[in-house]
Design brief:
Blueprint (H helix, E strand, L loop, with lengths): L3 E6 L10 H21 L2 E8 L4 H10 L3 H19 L5 E4 L3 H16 L3 E11 L4 E2 L5 E4 L8 E2 L16 E5 L7 E10 L1 H15 L5 H6 L1 H7 L4 E2 L1 E3 L14 E3 L1 H5 L2 H12 L7 H4 L5 E5 L5 H15 L2 H6 L19 E3 L14 H5 L4 H10 L7 E3 L1 H30 L12 H22 L3 H22 L1 H4 L4 H22 L4 H10 L9 E8 L4 E8 L31 H9 L3
Helix pairs in contact: 2-3, 4-9, 5-11, 14-15, 15-17, 15-19, 15-21, 16-17, 16-19, 17-19, 19-20
């Protein structure tokens, strides 16, 4: 029975390019997961967009002396280009700077307010006498009072991952000019996380058995050791979503509060685009839907604590505030499969030092599937991982080219030559033939189970292991020699190998969609395993924005074993992958840090 699957993907800040660490952390895992469920025939919705309102955008805008809109739109355009080249199948990749997102975020606030989960409080906030304004948290840095990290933001420490009380920051200084700020009184609305704590803790305990240990440790563990307290949801800032309360001019919704609402607003926007304004409810109000949030470990508290609190607190009241009809509770996150960090050549990735593998730069020299393959093979699912250029070189040549690509090319080329582009008639299959096909076909269950659990690295390893088994079968059956003395027996082995390759094409498809589509065509099939992507521009009250959309209308792929039959015509194959020269290792290492 088909399920409703929501793949909610971390929103990249619109102030910097995307690197391999970002791709491995959330964007690629979500796409692999979504593609698998699409092949299964599930109702998949994969959404995200550019986080347009964070203070990283205003910091950069001030440094460049340009409007914040110009900054986020520039990087948003780069995201769209990268995601299309990388093959990330967002049903909608939008931005938080849309009329729709403004309306949904304001409705979420109103629902929490009406349900009694908002309160006002005057607090101390960092103020810059030199600049004459209150400073958003990202404008203030200092030493973390928990772990001693010296470059902590005032609201969260990137070293220990803990949410911080900005007033307790040690040795604070402003990020823009280095001056020392002072604490002054300002009044804000707060989300009452303390009152919602039992709801969030109960929700986490229900998922404790299957969530990743690092996620439970940073969410349920934090609640049990420290408890929850209210957090301000407004800020003294002009760039952002206007605060929808009369008399509170000059304040906007705090980005940590409204950015996570983007998953909901993007789903609503997608529904409107497709002419079904209530379709979003199938994922958000359906308690049987599976909603998964693909993020990096630095965002765990916001997705495993704060967002569930917002959803539980708003409940069915959101429907009345938004004007969407029947009042029903939200479906809380099914899973938050947060990944650890990806390092580079033994060091932390650093954009400022150009110590990074930038997505678009990589794709200017290499194909997307080798990148997808390598990132999946080292995906930091349980601990930090490391990109090593020599390792990338070997994964490409020794696995993609030698194991999988060579298998496809030699079998199809041989068959094309000796059977003139027609799948050979095998006759009766021997025990070793059926044993191989049975093992490959079991991959739909074993690999599928790993993909369901978002254990993508082991799923890919199993697919490559099965490709190796087909190579072993060919070494033993040796059709290359047999064709000279017994073409019928050689045809049986080639048919079995082609049928196994046809199944492997599907097993590899979530990871290697571009080359799997090529192979699909080589084998004589019509149509696309997956659908197509395109961009479209929209105009609303906030302005024009361009979104990336996925069109599944011509997708024919299914998560099922091969249906290849004797007599099918197929095409002359070409190599699926390019063998790389060893020189690329030092060439690429030489680009780092410059």
């Amino acid at each position: 029975m088909s399920e409703f699957i929501l793949a909610a993907v971390a929103w990249p800040y619109g102030n910097s390019q995307i690197h391999a660490g970002n791709l491995a952390g959330s964007y690629l895992p979500a796409d692999i997961f979504a593609r698998y469920h699409r092949l299964k025939g599930d109702h998949v919705l994969m959404v995200s967009g550019t986080d347009s309102h964070g203070t990283p955008i205003t910091v950069r805008a001030e440094a460049e002396n340009v409007p914040p809109e110009e900054v986020y739109q520039r990087f948003h355009a780069g995201f769209l280009e990268l995601f299309q080249k990388m093959g990330l199948t967002y049903d909608l990749f939008t931005s938080t700077h849309t009329e729709n997102h403004f309306k949904v975020s304001q409705a979420m606030f109103q629902a929490l307010l009406e349900n009694g989960f908002m309160y006002q409080e005057t607090q101390k906030q960092w103020y810059s006498p030199k600049q004459g304004r209150f400073l958003p948290d990202r404008y203030v840095e200092g030493t973390c009072y928990i772990c001693g990290y010296q470059n902590a933001r005032s609201d969260q420490c990137d070293q220990c991952g803990k949410l911080l009380d900005p007033t307790r920051l040690i040795d604070p200084h402003t990020k823009t000019d280095g001056s020392t700020p002072e604490l002054r009184d300002t009044t804000h609305f707060f989300l009452d996380l303390g009152t919602l704590q039992d709801d969030v803790a109960g929700f986490l305990k229900e998922r404790e058995s299957y969530w990743r240990p690092n996620v439970i440790r940073q969410s349920l563990g934090q609640i049990q050791t420290e408890g929850l307290r209210g957090r301000p949801i407004t800020r003294d800032l002009k760039w952002g979503i206007p605060f929808p309360v009369e008399g509170w001019d000059g304040k906007c919704l705090y980005v940590w509060f409204e950015a996570v609402i983007g998953y909901l607003s993007a789903s609503i926007e997608w529904s409107k685009i497709h002419g079904e304004p209530d379709a979003w409810r199938d994922w958000w109000k359906n308690q049987d839907a599976k909603t998964l949030y693909f993020i990096g470990k630095d965002n765990i508290p916001f997705h495993a604590i704060i967002w569930p609190a917002e959803l539980a607190g708003a409940g069915g009241t959101f429907d009345a505030c938004y004007g969407s009809g029947k009042e029903e509770p939200f479906a809380l996150p099914y899973d938050v499969p947060a990944n650890e960090f990806l390092n580079l050549e033994g060091q932390k990735i650093s954009g400022s030092r150009n110590w990074a593998v930038w997505g678009l730069d990589f794709l200017s020299r290499y194909d997307p599937d080798p990148l997808r393959y390598y990132l999946t093979s080292i995906m930091p699912e349980t601990r930090d991982a490391d990109w090593d250029w020599e390792e990338f070189y070997h994964h490409n040549n020794d696995e993609l080219v030698a194991t999988w690509g060579n298998l496809v090319n030699r079998v199809l080329s041989f068959a094309y030559k000796y059977w003139e582009g027609v799948v050979p008639e095998p006759g009766a299959l021997a025990d070793e033939d059926t044993a191989l096909l049975d093992e490959v076909e079991k991959g739909f269950e074993t690999i599928g189970s790993e993909l369901e659990a978002v254990r993508l690295r082991s799923a890919l390893n199993e697919a490559m292991r099965l490709a190796s088994e087909v190579n072993k079968y060919l070494d033993q059956s040796a059709p290359w020699k047999m064709v000279k003395t017994d073409k019928g027996q050689a045809g049986r082995a080639i048919f079995v190998a082609m049928k196994a390759i046809d199944s492997l094409k599907v097993l590899f498809a979530p990871f290697l969609p571009f080359t799997s589509q090529k192979l699909h065509q080589f084998l004589g099939y019509d149509g696309q395993l997956f659908g197509n992507q395109h961009t479209k521009s929209f105009q609303d009250a906030v302005g024009e924005h361009t979104a990336l959309l996925y069109d599944p209308s011509n997708a024919v792929g299914k998560w099922e074993k091969s249906k290849l039959n004797p007599g099918r015509k197929f095409l002359k194959p070409e190599p699926l992958f390019i063998k790389l020269d060893k020189s690329i290792v030092e060439d690429e290492r030489g680009r780092l840090g410059k």
